[in-house]
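Following up on my earlier thread - several people asked me to post the actual chain instead of describing it. Fair enough. Here it is, all 384 residues.
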Amino acid sequence: MLQNKIIASLMVALTASMQFTVNAQQFASSISECPKLPGRTSPPTNPRDLRPDDIKVIAAMGDSIMAGFALEGVNDGKGGSSILNISSITEYRGQSWGIGGDDNAITIGNFVNHYNSSVEGRSKGSHLATICHGGLCLDAFRNQKKDVLNAALSGGLAMNLKDELDYLIPRMKKLPNINFETDWKLITIQIGSNDQCASCLNPFSGEVTVDKYSGYLEAAVERIKKEIPRVLVNLVGSFNVSAVYDLTKGQEYCRPLFNNPDAILNRVECSCFLFDDEARSNMDVLSNGYNQGLINIYNKYKDQESDTFAVRYTPAQIDISGFPLEGMSNMDCFHPGKLVHQWVAKIIWNSLFLPQAEIPTSMYQYKADEKVYCPAETDRFRVD
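Reply from S.P.:
Thanks for posting it. Predicted structure:
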């Protein structure tokens, strides 16, 4: 009897050890270290059955963060010096966390491409920034060849998602190597940072309330449902950008104006930073309200899920106060730099394979050595 118990205990320990090894192998330092998925025996029949290699089209919508604005910071000696540098008004869309397609860029676009090298839609390279101000969006600098399906607009508010869809849908239909009706698509939407900042001293403050934000997001999702077949919409939560104020206060790294470390460009870009703590607290209230609005939209469309359409909500509980300063663009210390884009790509990707109930409720803390999840053959993008 004793011998049998010892053998049983050893078997349990061995099984646990093997399980730990399997789980550990599902994370890697780079997506290139993840094994490719074996081919499917039958195609997916609905959005709950989607693996990364099923995605034929990837698209993104949002603001200057999704557009990769100032991601590389100010490159002294190349294109000018200090703030008067061409890099300070450039979008590096090929490295955008959600859809970038530059070689070796750490992005969700390239993660999907690892499993399906024929995926279409990733943005490439860089160009001068597109501009949105309230209801006016200037597409003069939009480059369809480089942007592809990165419809994000620098300066964009939730109210501008209509403009982005006006670009995205026709552009998607023109892609030469896809079947618009039958190919599966992944669309990531992340917006809300400019909306928070516009709540202070801004002629469009009436357009950035929680109700308005939620209405614009729901209208965008509804239009996608009606006009884009076979699609999974990933609603990514609003960032609590008020934390940028304390992170960057008095930092010479942040290219202070007039050689004054307290006069940083983000104080101009985000008018709430010109006011007191209460104004920044109100930004957090708005962001939390936006996220609840996204949850409500997710719950609404969960009941309307079909064989060709689904919505998921991915929280963005990111502790910005814990970012390394060099993780921000030194152009303005408002926009994230390359390090943060890479990290966000990993944590959002990792969340895609978790049901809502298993997504961590605590704040994500920046880790330079963040691992990337390697999905197994049985893994699916979760919409539950």
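The longest helix spans residues 277-302. That should answer part of your original question.
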